[in-house]
Give the backbone structure.
Amino acid sequence: AGLAASAGACAGRLLVRPSGLGAAAPDGAARWAAVVDACRNVRTYRARLGLSGTVANRHIPGFASAVLGLAVTSAGEIGLEARVSGQLVFTMAGTADHARLFLVEDQRVVDAPADTIVDALIGVPIGPARLLAVLAGCVSTSDGMTEAARYGDVLRVVSGDTTVFLEDRNGAWAVRAGDAPGLQVDYQAVDSGRPSRLAIRSTPGADPRVSIVLHVDDAEINRPLPASVFSVRVPDTATPMSIEELRASGAAR
């Protein structure tokens, strides 16, 4: 995925979510099925993510210095490391049910479900399944659709616990944005049909307030990943840290 790739007129904009009942959308199920099929074909995802924005009142340095190395699979595995100005800040790996976070400077280790750790770190609960769905381009972790409505050139679809907004891009329908529990996602640029720039925000009124942008670089899709990506090597000198301690000291607070 290229950093400069753009999705035409949608690049850089945050979608204004439509309100009201909308018009009937008898084509909604077919449009959603095509989108979700392409999304579910992504079984493994690995990329370098440039990061910018704010978490609570803390400013993230920017794409050039704040970098995430990420691997995630449809089996619920996750591997994540964060670097700032080249220095390793933390590593995290495991599964949705049990992940391990190692804070390098503090020499502390946390064991908890993956989404709980991410929520304690930045204030937005994102586990492996949701993260893969977001990066693959459909936001929803569900295949089904319960309702659909048209608002001009935008199609709103409700899928599981997620509201997804599709738009027509040069004759092909694609996800423009999505609202899931605890977060809102806007796709600002795509490359070869996959998101290359996306904005993630906490839901309106949430505390802490989170607003980050991810630039996707060097994305690898459906390539075999070694087991070592999903484990954390913790030195014997590391001491345990509770999720409550992490939440109290993390970037989200």
